[in-house]
Amino acid sequence: MTVRSRSSGKTLRRAPARRTAAPRVAANGSKGAGHTQALSRGLALLETLAATDGGATLTTLADALSLPAPTAHRLLATLEQAGFVEAGANGEWRVGVRAFRAGSAFLSHRNLVAETLPRLERLMEQAGETANLAVIEDGEAVFVAQVQCRELMRMSAKLGTRGPLHASGVGKAMLAAMPDDAVAAAIVARGLRRYTAHTLTARDALVADLAATRGRGYAIDDQEHAQGLRCVAAAILDETGQPWAALSLAGPTSRLTPERVAKLGRLVRDAAHDATLALGGLLRDAR
Questions:
Q1: Which residues contact 240 (CB under 8 A, 6 or more apart)?
Q2: Tens digits of per-residue pLDDT, 200-247?
Q3: Domain-by-domain residue ranges, the chain?
Q4: Do residues 225 and 172 lie in contact, with contact meaning Cβ atoms separated by under 8 Å?
């Protein structure tokens, strides 16, 4: 927002008038800072609410963001008026339909989900396992689409769930498609946290795994993020040949056995190649 001040010629000629203008500018600046803080808090509240299952109470949200309850309530009331949140019958707050529309715009504008959903459905039918689509955001893999298999025991991730790049199939697939300096920066920024006994927490081990991923064209998550879960994944590349999404197949180790990994990996790799070309991306071997 631009703030304009108007002064008469007489005022401009007098030194006192120039001195008294400073407090007004400071006040306006302070007001702008207050608006920025309120916007930041509102967005943080909306993001926190989106990460919950079935909504959250005012107290829970205020505690999560270290906000006074009256402040959190004012923010929620403003967001509710705009349709970004809605109040439930039992005092819980939920994400509103307008927030869904805003969040979906990113994907719909790039047609990523529309282009890959048929491939996810085909992968699920071919493999009998859950097929996933993830993108990179803030150094993490974020699941944005999923077609669940029909088995009783199956991988299930809430859309918007985040996963580590170094310990997930989709994450390692995207890391393997990055330049070495970008991989090094990602490791420094997020570290190599251990999730299971199988997590690759040594940099040399991860680098070797990424090299193997590049060689075969797909990544393998062998119980590295969740015990008992195995996954194969391949990156979708953009028009510069850089990764911005990945497809995966995931399931329990009892079904997704080491003997099936190569076959399923090739299915995912071919689907990711097709999606890359359909979205105008550049395959590495096509450069």
A1: 282
A2: 999 999 999 999 999 999 999 999 999 999 999 999 999 889 998 999
A3: 9-99, 111-286
A4: no
